[in-house]
Specification:
Elements lengths: L3 E8 L4 E8 L4 E5 L5 H11 L2 E6 L5 H4 L2 H8 L2 E5 L3 H5 L1 H4 L14 E3 L4 E4 L2 E7 L8 E5 L4 E5 L2 E2 L2 E2 L9 H14 L5 E4 L5 E2 H7 L5
Parallel strand pairs: 3-4, 4-5, 5-6, 10-13
Antiparallel strand pairs: 1-2, 2-3, 7-8, 8-9, 9-10, 11-12, 13-14
Length: 210
C-alpha cells in the first residue's frame, strides 16, 4: 500500500501542472515544478497540512521554476535539479523568462545525476535524465509507488517541444524510447502540462513510440 498522496494545481500563463507529493504517515511533502503564484502554492501546502522538504525541478524553464525561490525562502527547503540544467537556469536567454516579460535566473541547491537514487520525504526517487526539451531535463521516478513525474518530456499522446535553446529532437526520441522501454507499463505518468497518462497508454498512442 502506497503512502503517497498526490495533489496538483495548474498555475501560470502556460498552465503548468504543479504537483504536491505528500507522505501520508509523516506529512512530509515535495513540490514538483512550482511554476508561478507562490502564494497559491504555499496556501495549498498549508491546506494539505504538509511539511515541505524539497522542490524538485524537471527542467530549468521559467514556466516551471518561477515560484521556486520564494518557496525555498518561505519554507527553508532546497531546490533540486539535474546537473546539466545549470546553464539553462542561469541564463535568461535560455530559460525562456523573457517570453514572460522577465529576466530571471535561479541557482539550485542540489544538482542530481542520471541514475542517481535519492530519498526524500520517505520516498525512494530515481533520477532519469531525459534530454530533448532541454539538455538537463529529467524525470522523477518513484518505483515503489509506480509513479513518474515527466515534466515536459512525456505528455499524454505527445512530447515536449524541441525548438527551444538546448532542445534536440533526436535526444527527445531517445528519451521517450528509454521511458517506454525501461518503466513498467502500469506506471502512472504526471506530465508538466495537460492530462495524466500511463506508460502502457503511451506505448500504444505516443507518436514517438517504437
Amino acid at each position: 500500500m502506497s503512502n503517497m498522496i498526490i495533489q496538483s494545481l495548474v498555475v501560470g500563463a502556460i498552465q503548468t501542472n504543479v504537483y504536491f507529493i505528500m507522505n501520508k504517515e509523516t506529512k512530509e511533502l515535495l513540490i514538483v515544478d512550482p511554476a508561478d503564484e507562490a502564494g497559491r502554492i504555499a496556501e495549498k501546502v498549508r491546506e494539505m497540512q504538509g511539511t515541505p522538504k524539497a522542490v524538485l525541478l524537471t527542467h530549468g524553464h521559467y514556466d516551471h521554476f518561477g515560484a521556486a525561490d520564494a518557496l525555498r525562502k518561505e519554507f527553508g527547503i532546497d531546490v533540486y535539479c539535474e546537473e546539466h540544467e545549470q546553464q539553462v537556469l542561469s541564463d535568461p536567454s535560455v530559460n525562456t523568462s523573457p517570453m514572460h516579460g522577465l529576466s530571471a535566473v535561479l541557482k539550485a541547491d542540489r544538482y542530481l545525476t542520471d541514475g542517481q537514487q535519492i530519498e526524500l520525504a520517505g520516498f525512494e526517487i530515481h533520477v532519469l535524465r531525459t534530454p530533448g526539451h532541454t539538455t538537463g531535463s529529467c524525470c522523477f521516478y518513484f518505483p515503489k509507488d509506480g509513479v513518474l513525474f515527466s515534466g515536459d518530456t512525456l505528455f499524454c499522446e505527445s512530447y515536449g517541444r524541441t525548438d527551444f535553446p538546448t532542445g534536440n529532437s533526436r535526444e527527445m526520441t531517445e528519451s521517450i524510447h528509454r521511458l517506454l522501454r525501461e518503466l513498467p507499463e502500469d506506471t502512472a505518468v504526471y506530465p508538466g502540462h495537460a492530462l495524466n497518462t500511463s506508460i502502457a497508454w503511451e506505448k500504444r498512442y505516443n507518436p514517438l513510440a517504437f
